[in-house]
Amino acid sequence: MFPAGPPIYSLLRLPLLQLLLLVVQAVGRGLGRASPAGGPLEDVVIERYHIPRACPREVQMGDFVRYHYNGTFEDGKKFDSSYDRNTLVAIVVGVGRLITGMDRGLMGMCVNERRRLIVPPHLGYGSIGLAGLIPPDATLYFDVVLLDVWNKEDTVQVSILLRPPHCPRMIQDGDFVRYHYNGTLLDGTSFDTSYSRGGTYDTYVGSGWLIKGMDQGLLGMCPGERRKIIIPPFLAYGEKGYGTVIPPQASLVFHVLLIDVHNPKDTVQLETLELPLGCVRRAVAGDFMRYHYNGSLMDGEGPFDSLPGPPALYCSYSRNHTYNTYIGQGYIIPGMDQGLQGACVGERRRITIPPHLAYGENGTGDKIPGSAVLIFNVHVIDFHNPADVVEIKTLSRPSETCNETTKLGDFVRYHYNCSLLDGTQLFTSHDYGAPQEATLGANKVIEGLDMGLQGMCVGERRQLIVPPHLAHGENGARGVPGSAVLQFEVELVSREDGLPTGYLFVWHEDPPANLFEDMDLNKDGEVPPEEFSTFIKAQVSEGKGRLMPGQDPEKTIGDMFQNQDRNQDGKITVEELKLKSDEDEERVHEEL
Ligand SMILES: [Ca+2]
Ligand SMILES: [Ca+2]
């Protein structure tokens, strides 16, 4: 208002008065000097009866001020009061816009200071007075309280009250911010606060949504930082003020706490916190991942959500608490879908997601406000792809050449250690004191082992990585979390050729020509179980044939006997034996 027209809120707004001021102001002398007792005052008398403890700034010539006052005569009679008119004085000081007594009396004053001024007539309205208001030669008494001081040369004043140790980013022009604030006038009168609204104040910076001083004062601020920002009125609401709460020409003081900052152009930010050695495979879209996470907001509030494992040593039973999902397929927020790609098993990474790649302007639930940046600390436990096969790595081979390797149907004995990809031990054959036994392809072990144990030499050691669809699937098993990738170390102890499907015994050469006679040891025309068993064991020990491996021989021989004893009378006759071998012949022909 001062550059742009007459002061509206001045006591001394009559043109006549201003003329008078010019006439009388040359008479004054030094500040605050009183005349000898009893005589007329030579200068303004100043009594600073209340000085605030903090006085960051004193009124200087040319400053703009806002103040309240009461004006009385010597007899105590009031001739004017800003309180009565409910209008502050807002005016430039020390340049003759006020009576000289007031110009001088305000010098050096602090905001919230209270002064009594005694203004002699020659520094007030002189020998003429002011028609109807001030008689000639009147000494004026003013009680003044200063509310505001600023200058046209002022800039925004920023004081950093608290800066967090970690500053992920600082506010730049064009950013979108969420902050809390308390707004006061320079004298401490509160005019607005975000804390009463139950939410942050959310806005763009540097786009004219804010008063200019705020656009400037927020720049460079970190999430979690607290600032005091003092804004002169020409960078705030200026001559008009704002509603009933911000008077014209008011300096504003904001105490700001920055909660959040992002830019609409932001993408997901990744920070690797821990990368395991020897990471060869990185997750891609379409992989299925199991991970733990902590989610927090930018100012450190949180976690708003987490699926953490126990701190150091993971117990396998707690593994079910990982978050399990496909990545890059839209099952999770876009920022997470992106941020998990490229991760290694065992990696810990921090993923910072702007709201447009998270929960947007509306947020979700009562923990994630609208327009919130989310920070996730993620620990990748494992991942796999539904198209994965068993990954086989040979760790060592026996030095002698290996002519025969394992194939489907073979009976194998092997030692194994099974663990999760994070190293959690699950099972080991060493707990049982004997190797594990299995017929390959007989559905006795998980599919991944059936595959991973093929093509192996006795004495060879392998590492196998088995995806869950070739192990225990989505539901897991006792001690194995659902969808877990398993890691095996296997060592082949022995290998025996299997028998053709359906066979319990095979001849290495042609069977004896007189088979029944050979079996019927006491030549009574029938073969009971004892004779049958003795005969078969003799063939095996003489190397003429062999039984199915991996089974109790007594049980296998018992089964063979049952097959031959067609009428189930506990003995085999020559007819029964012939009938059975004819059938077997026919079956072989059909298969061929
Ligand atoms: Ca017999
Ligand atoms: Ca029989």
Automatic annotation (TrEMBL):
Residue span, EF-hand domain: 507-542, 552-587
A GO cellular component annotation in the UniProt record: endoplasmic reticulum
Signal peptide positions (record): 1-26
Catalytic reaction(s) noted: [protein]-peptidylproline (omega=180) = [protein]-peptidylproline (omega=0)
CDD domains named in the record: EFh
Positions of region (Disordered): 543-592
Compartments, as annotated in UniProt: Endoplasmic reticulum
Main location group: endoplasmic reticulum
Keyword terms of this UniProt record: Calcium, Endoplasmic reticulum, Glycoprotein, Isomerase, Metal-binding, Repeat, Rotamase, Signal
Pfam families: EF-hand_5 (PF13202), FKBP_C (PF00254)
GO terms of molecular function: calcium ion binding; peptidyl-prolyl cis-trans isomerase activity
Main function: PPIases accelerate the folding of proteins during protein synthesis.
Full protein name: peptidylprolyl isomerase
Species name: Aotus nancymaae (Ma's night monkey)
Gene: FKBP10
